[in-house]
Amino acid sequence: MHTKTLHEIRELINKGEVSCVELTKNALDRISKVDDKVGAFLQVDEEGAVNKAKEVDEKIKRGEDVSFLAGIPMAIKDNICVEGLKTTCASRMLENFIAPYDAHVTKLLKRNDAVILGKLNMDEFAMGSSSENSAFKKVRNPYDLERVPGGSSGGSAAAVAAGEAYYTLGSDTGGSIRQPASLCGVVGLKPTYGRISRYGLVAFASSLDQIGPFTKDVEDCAHVLKAIAGYDEMDSTSAKREAEDYTKYLNQDIKGLKIGIPKEYFAEGLNENVRKQIENAIEVYKKLGAEIKEISLPMSKYALAVYYILASSEASSNLARFDGIRYGYRADEFEDVVDLYVKSRSQGFGDEVKEELCLVHMHFLLVIMMHIIKRH
Amino acid sequence: MSVTVRDVEYVAKLARLEFTEEQKQKFTEDLNGILNYVEMLKEVDTDDVEISIGAYRVENALREDVVKDSFNRDSLLKNAPDSQDGFVKVPKVIE
Predict the structure, then answer these.
(1) Most B CBs within 10 Å, among A362, A364, A372, to test the B interface
(2) Which of A150, A159, A153, A69 is nearest to A105 (CA)?
(3) Which of A361, A365, A371 to mutate to test binding with chain B, by most B CBs within 10 Å of its CB?
(4) Residues of A noted as catalytic
């Protein structure tokens, strides 16, 4: 059962071959069987999940129309708020933080009667790309437990790959959905900026952060995206466009579609197997009638350096709120209020986060120093 | 130009963080690596490049200014490390 896709499961429910409670109990069993090894979950809400599943089963029994996602078990990255559950960002800083409200995407999932199994492990505050930087435990790649699942949404990718949830949500700032999806062999999408509201997502680098789905296939991805996209007045960068039915594009003809292949992306260091897979995909598109064209994006080599500066600058201001005053970790002993900030932040944040926070100050310090030197 | 342990101590202070000696050593090395890497941006000539703030035209999505219910104070104070009489409790900040 756990190897089936979301749309296959929907069909089984619709045919009456499986109930939502059965599905949910199966998923919970699967979690208790494999998650000791995988480490994808930080929190499992057994009671909430089973109750929701019962509710959907009753709706179906009464003959009510239910949504595509109704009654199907899923899970959410632990930097996205679900009211009443912890949102830790895999950090000691938020170890005991209970979300007082639902993120916009959570609200939409609940409106669609999704069964939320729990919260997923990640790199602390989404900083990292291996999911080894969780303050609580490492996530492992279900295909080979000695390898990393990628990150920062490693828990979201691993949970889908290990059949612990039929789909999950993650967040992507600089690859945090796309890279772990690739490493775990599942579908991951970073939607266009503005497509999905970030209200209730703990901010890392706001000009880049996006929430997106992890699924077993592209069809599932279209269904999940359709459910969580759309305008939200609580996110001022949210695009004023209604969600579309992305599933209608699934079987469209792509004859004449022009696909650009940036030559810079085939740089030194690209794994041979990966290169072969990309070339295979290009062949498939060609056969389907797409026009393949090599293009050049000559600034690509600077992207990572620019990213370092932007992401660390934005992280530094976004994480200034964690000061031990209103919520989050507060040190037990301190001398005065400044010492309270310093001790709470130093004890609450992990090394990766601290380094990121220093980087931006360091960069600006060097810029200032260089200006001073130039002037003399 | 390279970063020294003293620089790390200074920026730690700015970021309201404190480090062990071991962390200071490690961060000094790591930060030097990253800063050397981003140095490459200097070779890019941006004089005639127009400022771009993104690939898509995004306008501020302002909402109507209407009075609405806000959060319940008690539910928010549940996450406060220390509170009293409906307020967040902090150490004394004035002498």
Answers:
(1) A362
(2) A69
(3) A361
(4) 77, 152, 176
Judge whether B58 is closer than 8 Å to chain A, CB to CB: yes
Indicate the helix (H) or strand (E) that contains A77: strand A73-77
The distance of Cα A240 from the centroid of its chain, to the nearest Å, equals: 23
Query: What would you report as the CA-atom Rg of chain B, rounded to the nearest whole angstrom?
Result: 23
pLDDT at A215: 98
* Partner-chain contact B80 A327, CB within 8 Å: yes
Total residue length of chain A: 376
Which letter does DSSP use for residue A180 in this model? Answer: H
The verdict on B21 touching A (C-beta cutoff 8 Å) is: no
Q: Output the CA–CA distances (angstroms, integers) from residue A310 to A105, A139, A173, A195, A364, in the order listed.
A: 26, 27, 11, 21, 12
Phi, psi (deg, nearest 5) at residue A27:
-65, -40
Length of chain B counted residue by residue: 95
User: Which residues are registered as beta bridge partners of A210?
Assistant: A172
Global confidence as pTM: 0.94
Whether omega for the bond prior to residue A131 falls within 30 degrees of 0, making it cis, is no
What is the ipTM for the molecules in this complex? 0.89
What is the DSSP secondary structure assignment for residue A201, as one 8-state letter?
A: B
- In this structure, the strands spanning A187-188 and A115-120 are unpaired
Summarize pLDDT for A244-266 with one digit per residue, the tens. Answer: 999 999 999 999 999 999 999 99
Q: Tell me, yes or no, if B60 comes closer than 8 A to chain A by beta carbon.
A: yes
Kindly report the average pLDDT of chain A as a whole number: 94
CB contacts of B7 in chain A (<8 Å) are: 362, 365
A101 contacts in B (CB within 8 Å)?
A: 71
Largest CA distance in chain B: 59
Between residues 63 and 92 of chain B, which touch chain A (CB distance below 8 Å)?
63, 71, 75-76, 78-82, 88, 90-92
